[in-house]
């Protein structure tokens, strides 16, 4: 299903324009039609920047989400959102985001909103450009919910969320979405101490409705809230179990980790396409096309061109837009240099 070797892509999120950041803090000043117009305009900005960069695959930049993961809680019944951060002072980091209480049966009768995002993207993007929509996997989605008597632990919460995510994927396929990324960074963050086979089973059951119908991707990183990772940054503990993921493309962050474990893409490429992260979204160093080309050549030592995809390490929502634009443009230019060599 991949249309070219050395494909260029993104994970999902893209920086909000400054006016969207401001407007989202004053939504009470806008009418419902104003907000719809704002959503369209923001998606157009993200689409335009990605097309200008020359990417082979684009998203809507997740411009209508406040967070790649937590925005979905607004669609799920049975959750009481936490009123305040547990730590309000000091350096911004993951521990400033606490747990939300589960106060009823978890359900999403209106769906999770990704279908509407895809339909907007499809309406606004040029015809013929490959489009991708991202949804969080159920294990990652469970991370900010506190267990209770009905849902005893994180895995019980995950099992309750799994059919909700699975149904959203099924609806995306029905809507005509040809590429779906199921983001599961929590699996890579905690795979060193959890049962990796259990993670594989959860993932495979979640994506079953799309298998053979859409290109299934997954994103495995180590966190990027406010530019900080949260997990032990090693891919080795995930394998060989993760070779059995029912995915067409698996993304791993490499640039921020200075290409440690790059050889892990060799066995991966024998099972599915590998998306190598070559843009460090945590750094404001703008990688040059030559640096990107060197990373592509290094990747080619372990995987064939027709199995490789290149993308940023993670979503770009935590990176300033000026840097994101330059980084994407240079990424595409660097990959194109190696394409011409081939």
Which structural category do the helix and sheet elements fall into? Answer: alpha/beta
* CATH structural architecture: Alpha-Beta Barrel
Strand content: 5-15%
Give the termini distance in whole angstroms: 21 Å
What's the CATH first level?
Alpha Beta
What does the average pLDDT come to?
93
Shape: globular
Instruction: Report the radius of gyration as a whole number of Å.
Output: 19 Å
Helix share, percent: 25-40%
Order of helices and strands: EHHEEHEHEHEHHEEHEHEH
Please, how many domains? Answer: 1
Count the beta strands.
Answer: 10
Task: Extract low-pLDDT stretches.
Answer: none
Task: Please give the order of strands in the largest beta sheet.
Answer: 1-10-9-8-7-6-4
User: According to CATH, what is the topology?
Assistant: TIM Barrel
Count of helical stretches: 10
Helix and strand arrangement:
Elements: E1 7-8, H1 18-24, H2 32-53, E2 77-80, E3 100-107, H3 114-124, E4 133-136, H4 138-141, E5 145-146, H5 154-174, E6 179-183, H6 185-190, H7 196-207, E7 215-220, E8 249-253, H8 265-269, E9 273-279, H9 289-300, E10 308-312, H10 321-341
Parallel strand pairs: 1-10, 3-5, 4-6, 6-7, 7-8, 8-9, 9-10
Antiparallel strand pairs: 2-3
Helix pairs in contact: 2-10, 5-7, 9-10
Comma- or semicolon-separated keywords:
342 residues; alpha/beta; 7-stranded parallel sheet; 3-stranded mixed sheet; transferase; 5-methyltetrahydropteroyltriglutamate--homocysteine methyltransferase; zinc
Structure, explained:
There is one protein chain. With 342 residues, this protein is α/β, with parallel strands linked by helices. It has one domain: TIM Barrel (Alpha-Beta Barrel). The protein is 35% helix and 14% strand. It has ten helices and ten strands. The chain has helices at 18-24, 32-53, 114-124, 138-141, 154-174, 185-190, 196-207, 265-269, 289-300, 321-341, and strands at 7-8, 77-80, 100-107, 133-136, 145-146, 179-183, 215-220, 249-253, 273-279, 308-312. The strands form two sheets. Strands 1-10-9-8-7-6-4 form a seven-stranded parallel β-sheet. Strands 2-3-5 form a three-stranded mixed β-sheet. It is globular, with a radius of gyration of 19 Å. Residues 7-333 form the Cobalamin-independent methionine synthase MetE C-terminal/archaeal domain. Its cofactor is Zn(2+).
